[in-house]
## 1
Amino acid sequence: MKTLIADCGATKADWLLSGGRLLRTEGFNLAQTPLPKLRAILDSVAKEVGPDVGEVHFYAAALVDTPPVNLSDWFPHASIHWYSDLIAAAHAALGHREGIAAIVGTGANTCQWDGEKVVKKVPCGGFILGDEGSAAVLGRLFLTDFLKGFVPEEIARAFRARFASDYSTLVSHVYSQPGPARYLGAYAPFLLENYAHPYVKALVDGNFRQLFERTIGQYDALPVGVVGGFGYACRNILQTLGAEYGITFSAFLPSPINGLKSYYGI
């Protein structure tokens, strides 16, 4: 019987089978994705991996007390284990070592890990109430400045040349369209391309300083393992700024799946 490890984020989902076979599907959020769409994704995965699955380790964003689906409907012979995406980060980046696990992607989330369990967690709050350090918050900060005329003209001009930037389009995407955090986070690559500009550097650095001061600073002084494409892309920035706060980093992973592969030894 095979083991299936699922790492499901809002943008993409990785499905790793024992033996090393990796599938990738569209991502989803357990609290927001409509059930028909979630079921369709699971239908496609179950068809691809076949019935010979004896164990499923399912890591997902927005996991609450009761999962919205019963995975036994797709994997009837398997023992099912549910985990949050934050536990995925801890297992992947820290394993059985003590440290701080930090998701730094479209969203942000952190915890203090004793090698086996979460011992402290500062609530992330989402991109409106928190998520300091995330790509979505960086996008929100930038669009706020853009709409109110605080972005230097050379950066604003480059932004207008690349993106639909009229007021109604920006506001509609944030308030009326699905996936506003993903939409805001999509501006992060543009900003990182312009990191040398003093305005952008201050915006990016300030976002990470908020992560250090408001979240990571509330934990014990332990090495930080970072998981997420945005954090991985910004690893040099994070290390430079972190040194000012006495923060050290033990790992930077673009996604959890390779770390989870090592954690389970498959």
## 2
Amino acid sequence: MDDIALDSIKELDIHVGKRLREKRQKLGMTLAYVAERLGVSHQQIQKYEQAQSRISAGMLYQIGQLYGVPSHYFFDGFQSLKQKLGERQNTDIICHNREKALNILLVEDDPTDELLTRRALEAADQKVNIFCVHDGAQAIEFLRYKTMNVDFPRPDIVLLDLNIPKRDGHDVLKEIKRDRDIQDIPVVILTNSISVQEMIAVYKNQASGYISKSFDYDLFQKSMIGFVEYWSLVVVLPNTSQDIECIPLRQAV
């Protein structure tokens, strides 16, 4: 089996898991309730939803019966990697739309720091959309399940304070990078700490950057403007890789 086929199987597991989770939540069923009805542990149901365990056809049929849908419901909308590649006209092209706003999830519990960070981010010339959550549990809930009643798109980047309640920033970073549905979202750490050991730890856990807060607002604003410019103008993110300014890879190298 080639790499594309293996990747497609992984993508299918992720797609099915996402459909399982969304349907369960829509029905208002808890993991514990579903597990009890099916005679398995709630950890096993969670593994199915997070694509950490392959689900059998028999189990998928039982879950479909419980949720009131046919088994094929969980496969609806799936497109394999091979199909996606086949639709591309030219795989040597990067398309970067610099006009699209950068969607930032700010994880910050201090109201003053939130206000200053918003003000500094909005000082950039590029468009930004900012949504803030105030503890680690809210951050994971928002990214993984989108259960909050807000109209905000999937974040392009997470700006994460380390010193937050309920689940600290280190735990949130690890959780994001363990979850295949959201691990592709870059996470940049924003913190008052200047501990080198702490900085090394977050980079080992796949942080995309580490920014130390400054007590000098002008300096802090410059850092935030540089942050926005880098992620808007230099880096090509999935949300900004459409429609405008197509750059051949061979010329870009």
